[in-house]
Amino acid sequence: MAPSNVLIVMCFLPKWNNSIERSPFLELLHGLAKEPLVELWLREHPRKDETSLTAAEWSEFDALHNVRRRNLDEDTIDLIAACDVLLEIESSIAIDAAILGKRVVMPRYLQDSSVVLKYDLVGGVTRTHDLVSTIQAIKDVRQSESLNEEFKRYVAAQIHDRTLDFYAASLKNIAESYV
After folding, report:
1. pLDDT at 5
2. What domains can be seen in the chain, in order of their start residue?
3. How far apart are CA 66 and CA 172, in angstroms?
């Protein structure tokens, strides 16, 4: 359990085949691990072969006092709920975190410039452009992107306050149109 003054940063390791720059990403993780008031949680994707760190990389992180490897059997939403900040590159898990009211920091510089995400267009997350601004954005507890209506509609598909009710009604309407 982290002390109350420690910032818990959850990072789901990215899939390397999605044009993610591996070396700068590892540099970012090491930079966060050097921050005395940061506890960094790392978890692989269920398809580990796409997100795994090498044995040597895991060994380096396992040796650090403020890095915790999270197990695949831990519920993703529980991990997000327990963290202060989600560090994410390009996964839709950022939508869940933003809706749960968590700060989401997405380093733009770690992904190939040809990749454009809806976050780049409508906000809802903090996009950073280099190592220093990423670490600063993570540590800045006052900084938070608000979820504007464009984010809710085009990124989260949350047009109404009750998203599940909206989807249930939409599915019912589709089903009834075939009767």
Report:
1. 83
2. 7-147 (3.40.50.2000)
3. 48
